[in-house]
């Protein structure tokens, strides 16, 4: 077989990237087949493609979160045409995206090739990210809690102040998705969480949530419930991707929400995401 060439992606590659994504079953909005998502990654991240005989047969993307010594490289996507699984294309893409050492993380699928590949690049498996789904009218905001619509810039500014990570571009991109909205959650008037929700069809739900440093464990659960209770999905159902150890999981399961699927959080350090407080985006964390 001819050697696979790995190069930086350009906008003209998007149709072939979409074809690879669709061939691997990634047909949802905010994935490799979505031009808005891939255009965001081209502008804000690092996207590479694997080319064989002039055609794109795989792609990968990373997004840096934070800056300086605390910066983390988040692997957003890594997909290879099914006919080339096991041929080394994924490893070649990842070697281009992650040369040398560094702080790295991703949410690995359960594909048999995924976890061993990421382990070879210094990541270990730590906990499941649960894709929880249920009716928002089954949830009541806890006593004293309320969520309200906000501006994406305000939510991004709060997350920057609370975490030191500038997620402005991501918050604006999330808010621009179908049904996208930014939200603030308060307890007795005290601002304790900033979030973004949105998505098309069955992908609609809580996208990302950050907590104020003063928020405790009970606040972490209550903030998620308050935000979900404030959503208005067309079919009454929403999605929330929540770390399995998060205190909101038990509360959501208790209301009848169910686990659709799960990914595995893998990272060079387990502390890159706090599973007891964070509600990360599976794509951009």
Would you mind describing this structure in some detail?
- It is a single chain.
- The chain is an alpha+beta fold.
- The protein has 2 domains: 5-102, Aminopeptidase (3-Layer(aba) Sandwich); 131-262, Aminopeptidase (3-Layer(aba) Sandwich), CATH 3.40.630.
- Helices cover 27% and strands 33% of the residues.
- It is built from 8 helices and 12 strands.
- It has helices at 14-23, 35-44, 89-97, 114-119, 152-163, 168-175, 217-230, 248-254; strands at 5-8, 46-52, 55-65, 72-80, 104-108, 124-135, 145-150, 181-187, 190-198, 205-211, 237-243, 258-267.
- A 12-stranded mixed beta sheet has the order 1-2-3-4-5-12-6-11-10-9-8-7, with helices on both faces.
- β3 (55-65) and β4 (72-80) form a beta hairpin.
- α5 packs antiparallel against α6 and α7 (217-230) crosses α8.
- The model has no long low-confidence stretch (mean pLDDT 96).
Tags for this entry?
GNAT_dom, alpha+beta, Aminopeptidase, Acyl_CoA_acyltransferase, 8 helices, 33% strand, transferase, N-acetyltransferase, globular, single chain, 285 residues, 2 domains
Structure described in brief:
With 285 residues, the chain is an alpha+beta fold.
Unreliable sequence segments: none
Number of strands: 12
Approximately how much beta-strand content do the residues carry? 25-35%
CATH hierarchy class name of the largest domain: Alpha Beta
Number of helices: 8
N- and C-termini, Cα separation: 36 Å
Helix content: 25-40%
Order of helices and strands: EHHEEEHEHEEHHEEEHEHE
Tell me, briefly, the overall form: globular
Task: Please name the CATH architecture of the largest domain.
Answer: 3-Layer(aba) Sandwich
CATH domain fold name of the largest domain: Aminopeptidase
Briefly note the structural class of the backbone.
alpha+beta
* Number of separate structural domains: 2
Strand order of the largest sheet: 1-2-3-4-5-12-6-11-10-9-8-7
Computed CA radius of gyration, to the nearest angstrom: 19 Å
Mean pLDDT: 96
InterPro entries: Acyl_CoA_acyltransferase, GNAT_dom
Pfam families: Acetyltransf_1
Keywords: Transferase
Protein name: N-acetyltransferase
């Amino acid at each position: 077989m001819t050697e696979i060439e790995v190069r930086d992606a350009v906008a003209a590659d998007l149709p072939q990237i979409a074809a690879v994504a669709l061939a691997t079953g990634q047909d949802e909005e905010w994935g490799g087949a979505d031009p808005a998502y891939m255009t965001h990654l081209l502008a804000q991240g690092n996207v590479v493609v694997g080319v064989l005989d002039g055609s794109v047969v795989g792609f990968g993307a990373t997004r840096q979160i934070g800056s300086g010594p605390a910066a983390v490289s988040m692997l957003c996507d890594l997909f290879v045409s099914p006919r080339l699984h096991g041929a080394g294309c994924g490893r070649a893409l990842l070697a281009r995206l992650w040369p040398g050492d560094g702080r790295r993380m991703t949410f690995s699928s359960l594909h048999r090739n995924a976890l061993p590949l990421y382990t070879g690049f210094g990541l270990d498996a730590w906990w499941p990210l649960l894709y929880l789904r249920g009716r928002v009218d089954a949830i009541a905001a806890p006593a004293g809690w309320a969520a309200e619509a906000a501006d994406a810039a305000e939510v991004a500014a709060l997350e920057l102040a609370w975490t030191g990570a500038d997620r402005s571009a991501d918050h604006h991109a999330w808010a621009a998705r179908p049904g996208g909205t930014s939200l603030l959650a308060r307890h007795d008037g005290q601002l304790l969480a900033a979030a973004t929700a949105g998505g098309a069809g069955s992908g609609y739900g809580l996208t990302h949530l950050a907590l104020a440093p003063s928020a405790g464990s009970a606040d972490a659960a209550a903030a998620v419930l308050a935000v979900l209770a404030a959503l208005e999905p067309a079919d009454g159902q929403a999605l929330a991707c929540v770390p399995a150890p998060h205190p909101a999981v038990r509360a959501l399961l208790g209301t009848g929400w169910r686990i659709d699927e799960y990914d595995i959080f893998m990272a060079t350090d387990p502390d890159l995401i706090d599973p007891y407080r964070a509600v990360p985006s599976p794509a951009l964390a």
